[in-house]
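Structure (tokenized):
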């Protein structure tokens, strides 16, 4: 497999460069990416180190590395431009046209998208994270009525990480409730959930994937057997159908896509404070 070095550079956290760069790289198959990250590049010494690494990678591989950048300091950026690399400067690509459209120069201040702002949306995200932790796995059922959405599914379908992601990224009050074997004696929602049916969103996945996840936690157990996974999922998916609960198959879907789908299909409000 072809190997190529790729660098993600930023004056601040590097989150934007990493996110955009990764999104672009996913469109190219057959390449093993050797990724290196350099955040908070705010001194000549740091720039010199990364420029030397870029040039060394170019010499070793016989091809210039790719560099994804959100650098704003023109002096730092000029040093990187002199390196033996193919530079993708996200801010320059967009700031020029924006400046022309708005007829106003940018301030070129690093880290503005991640500055703590004293507004309600930021504190809403903090509260949502605490809510997700306090209401995890139906641990505090009295909190369920406060939820924007309640994720349901059998054990190990990924409810907890999706709840935390919804809280962290969007400020959504996301609770979750696990279906247990005791719930499966009848084809109906547990009584606790019946008044909140409109808030429910189901997660499902393939029996083989569920077995793999459970086997890692409890190897050789009845809980992790393929037959038990298949039985629980069949009951769950039929319940979703009969109760008209929207659901998503998470077998091969990222947590970002799962969360975005829930936001869209459940018509939830995005309470972001930045990007």
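Design, position by position:
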């Amino acid at each position: 497999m072809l190997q190529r070095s790729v660098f993600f550079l930023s004056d601040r956290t590097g989150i934007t460069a990493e996110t955009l760069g990764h999104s672009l790289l996913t469109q190219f198959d057959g390449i093993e990416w050797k990724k290196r990250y350099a955040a908070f590049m705010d001194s000549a010494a740091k720039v010199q180190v990364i420029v030397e690494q870029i040039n060394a990678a170019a010499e070793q591989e016989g091809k210039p590395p790719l560099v994804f950048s959100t650098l704003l300091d023109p002096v730092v950026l000029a040093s990187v431009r002199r390196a033996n690399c193919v530079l993708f400067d996200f801010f320059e690509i967009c700031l020029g046209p924006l400046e022309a459209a708005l007829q106003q120069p940018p301030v070129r201040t690093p880290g503005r998208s991640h500055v703590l702002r004293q507004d309600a949306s930021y504190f809403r995200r903090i509260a949502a994270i605490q809510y997700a932790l306090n209401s995890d796995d139906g641990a505090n059922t009295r909190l369920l009525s406060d939820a924007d959405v309640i994720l349901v599914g059998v054990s190990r379908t990924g409810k907890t990480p999706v709840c935390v992601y919804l809280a962290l990224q969007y400020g959504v009050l996301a609770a979750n409730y696990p279906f247990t074997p005791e719930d499966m004696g009848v084809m109906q929602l547990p009584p606790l959930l019946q008044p909140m049916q409109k808030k429910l969103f189901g997660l499902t996945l393939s029996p083989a994937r569920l077995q793999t996840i459970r086997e890692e936690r409890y190897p050789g157990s009845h809980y992790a057997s393929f037959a038990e996974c298949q039985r629980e999922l069949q009951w769950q998916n039929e319940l979703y159908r009969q109760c008209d609960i929207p659901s998503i198959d998470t077998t091969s879907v990222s947590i970002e896509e799962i969360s975005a789908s829930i936001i869209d299909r459940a018509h939830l409000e995005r309470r972001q404070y930045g990007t």
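Reviewer-requested clarification: The chain has two domains: 2-114, 120-265. The first helix runs from residue 15 to 25.
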